[in-house]
Amino acid sequence: MFLQPLRQRYNIIKLLSTKQLLLRYACLIKTVHYGLTLHSICVRASFMKTFLLFIFVLFSATSFAQYDTVRIPIDRQYFHDKIVAQQEAIDKMDGQKDGLLTVSKDQSVNLQLSDVLFRRVKEMRYAVETNKLLPERNDKVRYLRYIESMLKQFTSAYQSGAVDPLLLPALIDNFEEIKLASFNGKSVLPIVKKTTYPIALINIAVFDDLPESREAKNIVYLKYIALHPDKILLTIRPYSTEPFADSLIVAAANYNPVQLYSFAQSKSSPEGKLIHRNTDPTVIMVSKLSQMPTALNYFPFLDNLLHQKQSIEEIKKYLGDGENNYDSVGYYKLLVKTEIDYAKRLMKKDTPIAMFGVNGLRDVLKNRAIRHFITPINVLHNLSVNIRMKAIQPLSAEELYYMIVMGENDIYTSSYKHSFARMLQQMSPQFHGDSLLLKVNFDYFKKFVKMAANYNKLDQFLGTMSSANSAALMRAFVNNLDKGNNLEDAVDVADAYSSIVNPELRKTMMGYVEDNENQAIKNGNTRGKIIYNLLHIIFESANEPGEKDLTSTIGIPSIYEVKNKSLQDDKGRIVQQVFFYGDEDGKTFFPPFVNSFPTKDWIVNPKAEWVEIKSRQGEVYIYANKPLDSDKNLDDSAQVHLAAYMKSQGMNPSIVVHRGHSYWLQGTIDRMPSDAKIVVLGSCGGYKNLSDILYNSPDAHIISTKETGAGDINRPILNYMNQTLITGKTLEWRPMWATLSRLFADDPNKDIRETWEDYIPPYKNLGAIFIKAYNKKMEQEENL
After folding, report:
1. Distance from C-alpha of 172 to C-alpha of 202, rounded to nearest angstrom
2. Coil, strand or helix: which one is 601?
């Protein structure tokens, strides 16, 4: 009854006078005002919705009655009809043409919007006909077209998501203000300045023939740029002759100097001319760099260059001319020195220019650490330590520290252990671990502590300092996890705890977590309370394996098992996709992977770009792209073509396996289905990787390792999984891990035994568990 189309109600209400309508509701109003019985309280919300509907219809009816005497000339009826057509188009955008615009769960909001759309717009139409300031037909037609254009642009913006439909009343208010100002010959610019960008954009496009149209459009553009400073250089060309263009170039330089550099390279373009004529010191420096070879290599030092702490010549002696005379070690040392300096400034809330973002200091520092040091010592992992670690011999303790933290997702376990040992060796007997952290201004110290814990080196590092200082360090490691914009530090703490075997250190960390939880509760800090409470619960579970069921305790799906049925599609098939990459490792391990499927259990069907493997028992399908040459991008093409084929066959993978180095992992994540139930990384599961995976697949069970996966370990893991799948049994992680642990404990190869210890099953992946639990908790908080 409540949602009965309103037009049917108008006919009834028009038969009653306003006095009769009010009398009919007088008794009900009086009851609500004076005597709220228990029953009337229960129905109050329903009554109020009905009453609001009544008021909406009442005023609509009286409004329509007010204009019943207005006669629309036949030669203008066409323009009125076009407005009505736009009203109806908006009405239908919620899926129903019923005289009620439904965009909110709050029915009173919908009624107000509907009132604006129907009653108020009709008033606007009729006001044009009766306005004595518009004596001429063409004037009236022009303003009718304004109304139609406003509604049409609102419709388009609403459909594209560019405008919130709740802005409709404000849009019409602003429209009326501009109309009134234009009637009276007053400036519309103050009206445009005070409104929001989406409203100003629509109405200034509507009134595009006003004398102040150009100035108004400039105001709208500046509103847009205030919201999207990253779009300055992409949109400034039509405004390049405006007085504000130079100041926008300065803003662009401070927001994204790399983008400014790209535009500055073309001195003859409108943007290039703007940049090269600018007198701001930052813009001048970027303009100068844009004309130099390898200019982007100077960008990490832009802030120091501007403040004359460094000169181009000082940097150039390491960079040389292009690749000629390039001193990789010297350049890396300069990057580290600058990072330490910038980190100190960050502690004082002073953010240097070009420290973050693409080609910023940290981006380049990470790139050079991996390229010049981590990759060489990883590649030479089969050679003697002296030959293998030669690349890092020139580095100081601080420089090794940054190499380690920057290479979190790329450094091999053995590479880390040798680098860590070299770092300690480079510290003098008086130069303790806390001294090292002080020297780097505690930059990335939480990442460093987490990695030391993961590689079982934390006790050794803490042993280089006094017990008081080591306790202070661990307190700092656990503190302030709620202060950042993401969960990275909290995930690092969770991951570190899972790797710590020292019971006293575990007890200490648990105590700090409890202290922070209690403080958050005392301060009414909801985010802090959630983070520390979840860590508390997860840590207790890790201390008492098997005794605390995290699934029920923190309200997430089971982390201990995956039922066979949950992996099946609607046809009962279990589909697995394996991502291989065409480097040497991919080409080496692909044949043993294919050969690991015995013909008595599996049918292997090779294709040009992939292999299809089908179980003889049950409905298990495995698709793996061939590791075709990555230098020619053929592995990527194979993955694209395989994905298209699987889609055409209705094959949606519930299991995803990544077989490759960590630098290939983002490609796998980008192509991962959104409802994957099991993800086997075969490479590092750092915070960014875990959060990206769980963003796409919130309930995924993740198997990862602290280093690049070993083929001799990945095969037994996948074989155990696949054999379980074809039997139709539930995949239980604890018994599976126990069985594999016994298998690898007897392996004669020491490297295999040690590498197996780096693998993390889903129920021990505390970082992933924490992310899942936190996201679930925040969903519950939002629904309260």
Report:
1. 11
2. coil
